[in-house]
Amino acid sequence: MKAVMLHGKGDVRVENVPDPTLQEATDVIVRITTSAICGSDLHPFHGRMPPDDPFSIGHEFVGVVEEAGKEVRAVKRGDRVVAPFSVSCGFCYFCRNRLPAQCETTNHAVFGMGRRGGGWAGAQAQYIRVPFADFMLERIPSELTDEQALFLGDIFSTGYFCAENGGIRPGDTVAVFGSGPVGLCTQMAAHLFGPARVLAVDYVPYRLERSKALGCVPVDASAADPVEQIRALTHGRGADVTLEAVGHEAALQMAIKAVRPGGTISSVGVYVEKTFDFPIGDAFLRDLTLKMGKCNAKNYIAPLMPLIHQGKVDPTVIITHTLPLDDAVRGYRIFDQKEEQAIKVILKP
Q1: What is the pLDDT of residues 33-46, one digit of tens each?
Q2: Are 117 and 204 within one domain?
């Protein structure tokens, strides 16, 4: 089969690799019909998570069950399915306590992140092996397109998780740092909680235009200090809630500075740094709350699916490019370099 392989910094290739096979009675093989390039895929692409060996990359996918192990009961051959980006067993302490992204059995593994992610093959491919299928997979109703369902496995669920952790209340002013794919999904999710305003902070004009189309107030970080712009819009106090969806120290520091005293910062940006400076004294004196972490996407797929099905939210509006899998190298280039006004790049095997 064909798969996108990461060989090193900036080096992705579409190559022929062996087809996956069933290894456990609880496995299924999924024929991938739609996958995507995620912002977190750029961390290893940029060399921030150097690969030990070439590995197949990608963790956002939907597809059709091609083969099922003898103990699989919840899905069958021919079912359309979506999976969360993290690999979890369903029966360990953390899975039973609604923290599947912290699964003890898989050591909180992630599809398509090489050895650092647990060694699981990636989803920018024609086929993928999914373990613990009865727990991992959700069937997709016929009324939902691949593209609609795709967002539930990671970035819309992640955006909702970020907004939920922010504790947004009706009438709040919310500032979202980042108008990339996760940031835009976070902005869409934030609106569901009834804030008076959602401010969108970014420095890329076409991405700010997309935020404006979603009903946000654009804050151009290239024009002036975004923290001062947010304070000017909030009578000098700061936003009630700030949501960070970038995964960079500078964005998190701005989110902390831009929130009002007593406010909440929620962060879902993926960090590979083990440590960096944190303004602990300022956070203490201003009575701030910080919540952050990896989304337990498994928990959100089924509850959020009706919102998309009923048209309450439409994450597909951020899709800018749909490319064949063979053009994945181009997809990475335009997404990374922000060429052709790329925001969300979909791959079709």
Answers
A1: 999 999 999 999 99
A2: no
Whats the size of the chain, residue-wise? 349
Cα separation, 143 vs 242, whole angstroms: 35
> Is pLDDT larger for residue 248 or for residue 170?
170
DSSP label at residue 318:
G
Residues in a beta bridge with 200? 176, 218
Q: What is the DSSP code string of 146-191?
A: HHHHHGGGTHHHHHHHHHHHTT--TT-EEEEE--SHHHHHHHHHHH
Of 135, 211, 143, nearest to 176 (Cα)?
211
Q: Distance between CA 260 and CA 235 in Å, rounded?
A: 11
For residues 268 and 292, is the Cβ–Cβ distance under 8 A? yes
Q: What contacts 35, CB < 8 A, 6 or more positions away?
A: 58, 60, 61, 62, 123, 124, 125, 150, 325, 346, 347, 349
* CATH code of residue 212: 3.40.50.720
Contact at 8 Å (CB) between 265 and 245?
A: no
Pair 2, 326: CB distance under 8 Å: yes
Domain range for 214 is 158-292
- Does residue 12 contact residue 5 with C-beta atoms inside 8 Å? yes
Question: CB neighbours of 25 closer than 8 A, spacing ≥ 6?
Answer: 69, 70, 71, 72
- Cα dihedral 225→231→237→240 (10° resolution): -90
Structural domain count of the chain: 2
β-bridge mates for residue 61, sequence order: 35
Q: Is the pTM of this model over 0.85?
A: yes
Whether 176 and 288 share a structural domain: yes
Give me the DSSP letters along 72-134: --S--TT-EEE--SEE--SSSHHHHTT-GGG-TTTTSEETTSGGGGTSPPPSSBSEEEESSHH
Assess whether 231 and 121 both reside in one domain.
no
| pLDDT value at residue 51 | 66
Per-residue pLDDT band at 266 (split at 50, 70, 90): very high
User: Can you give the C-alpha Rg of the chain in angstroms?
Assistant: 20
